[in-house]
Amino acid sequence: MLLIPCPYCGERSENEFGYGGEAHKVRPENPEELSDEAWNDYVFLQKNTKGTYYERWVHSSGCRRWFNVARDTLTNEVLAVYRMGEQPPEVEQRTYI
Amino acid sequence: MKARYSIWSLLRNALSYHENWPAAWRSPEPKQEYDAVIVGGGGHGLATAYYMAKEHGMTNIAVLERGWLGGGNTGRNTTIVRSNYMWDESAALYEHSLKLWETMSKELNFNVMFSQRGVLNLAHTQNELRVTKRRINSNRLNNIDSVWLEPEEVKKWVPAIDLLGNGRYPVLGGSLQFRGGVARHDAVAWGYARAADALGVDIIQQCPVEGFDIEDGQVTGVRTAKGTIKTKRVGVVVAGHAGVLADMAGFKLPINSRPLSALVSEPMKPCFHTTVMAGQVHAYCSQSDKGELVIGAGADPYNSYSQWGSNPVTEDTVAAICELYPIFRRVRMLRQWGGVVDIAPDASPIMGASPVRGMYLNVGWGTGGFKCTPGSGNVFADTMANDRPSPIAAPFRLDRFQTGGVIDEHAAAGVAH
Fold it and tell me: B11-19: long-range contacts at Cβ-Cβ below 8 A with a sequence spacing of 24 or more?
């Protein structure tokens, strides 16, 4: 069970939250001019890091607000939580093989 | 040539208290160079090596395994084998695999305990009922056995079931594939390993891959914990680490890695003769030959490489098992674990060329790779040995997400992602 510290409500259990996948993925400008390759990259391809991963969560059964989490995907440790629009804070960059 | 396993070898070895069985495969040090290297010593990787050696004469190859054989998802799944998938592309692949299962023990001279006890997929909602009936029709057009059972027929097939699910999980019917069933997962890895080794394949355990040597877009070597191995052909056949290996090779994949949970109970006398899957409520159940209930749960809703799975997922599954099978309410569970599964956006695998020349992918088997162990190995060996997509594997190419040729099998895959 993950305990996720929602920046608005505090620590709650994971089943109150919804998952939004990789964070800081910006929707491309001028979608009508975008190539198939660029669409593929935006819609399907993603980082799938084993280690420090930046991701989006939404507190569905709470304040219903979106925010970002930096989490170690091997140990499930939450390394940092920050609001939408904020730059990711400095956290330990862990990687595993 | 290895001594064959038979009733006579069993008797002969019984005389020496089973202390003199020869090793089933060698444990060689890696050579400097191979014609091809398979990364991943699970069922799929070992099957790939076996078919490359047997059907394509490539015996100067190595299988690299980071831990021990079958210690990843091969040893962590709930061993269900079936081929009742929706689309023609999947039907061809999974049915090809099921046919290989039917002759596997004999071909490998290794009892994989393949038991065609039937797989029943329950429908719990109107939507699931419609999708299931449509899939049955699709299966039958592809010559795959599949029948619809009304609720009273479900009860006849699985007497232990409560059709109302205690009022919480009512059963509206289900699809039954008689030729489906279960197999002994370790034996599949061991059987392929022994047969591949006999053909000259080097199986190297405790040898994690740390990187790839790539020159001008062509793979030239694999960097491992046991040194660099030169090769111009690499097959990446891993579960749970496709993203990590892709990252080493410098490209991204459309894959999310998540733990899929399972659990087993204490052993009991035979009481559950078939395999039942309930995709909507995430409760899969069969009874192993040791008497344990083998229970499959859902996947975690977020990316993770932890091999334990999250509590709410297990709790939901146990709740559904207790409501659907009241006789199991007081059964104690022995173990719970998770296997990290690589899920593609369309719940179908990715097989074929990668952005790096000479590097082939056989990944993204998601929540249901075990059933396709022989089929995947067979068509991927053809793909790698002949450097072109095998006809059955061709639709599962990586660029299908760019071209729009996705093969959506979320309903047939069972586990909702």
Answer: none
| Per-residue pLDDT tens over the stretch B322-334 | 999 999 999 999 9
B250/A contact by beta carbon, under 8 A: no
CB contact under 8 Å between A1 and B311, yes or no, is yes
Q: Nearest CB to B252: which of A39, A46, A55?
A: A46
Which residues in chain A are contacts of B210 at CB distance < 8 A?
A: 97
Q: Do B306 and A49 touch (CB under 8 A)?
A: no
Using CA atoms, how far residue B75 sits from B52, B79, B151, B370, B373, in Å, is 23, 9, 34, 9, 12
B17 close contact with A: CB closer than 8 A: no
Token pair for B70: 């079958």
Distance of alpha carbon B366 from alpha carbon B348, whole angstroms: 7
pLDDT digits (tens, 9 = 90+) for B141-194: 999 999 999 999 999 999 999 999 999 999 999 999 999 999 999 999 999 999
Q: Is A50 on the interface with B (CB under 8 A)?
A: yes
Q: Please name the member of B242, B302, B402 whose beta carbon is closest to the beta carbon of A36.
A: B402
* CA–CA min distance B211, chain A (Å): 9
**Pick from A43, A45, A97: which is nearest to B253 by CB?**
A45
A61 near B CB under 8 A: no
Q: Sort strands B181-182 and B234-236 into parallel, antiparallel or unpaired.
A: unpaired
Per-residue pLDDT of chain A (97 residues; tens, 9 = 90+): 899 999 999 999 999 999 999 999 999 999 999 999 999 999 999 899 999 999 999 999 999 999 999 999 999 999 999 999 999 999 999 999 8
| Segments of B178-292 assigned E as strands | 181-182, 202-204, 209-215, 218-224, 227-230, 234-236, 256-265, 275-278, 283-287
CB-based burial, B301-330: b 16+ in 10 Å, e otherwise: bbbbbbbebbebbbebbbbbbbbbbeebee
- In whole angstroms, give the CA distance from residue B239 to residue B316: 25
Torsion from C-alpha of B410, B413, B414, B415, nearest 10 degrees: -80
Considering only CB atoms, B255 lies closest to which of A13, A14, A48, namely A48
Residue B232 gets which letter from DSSP? S
First to last CA, chain B: 45
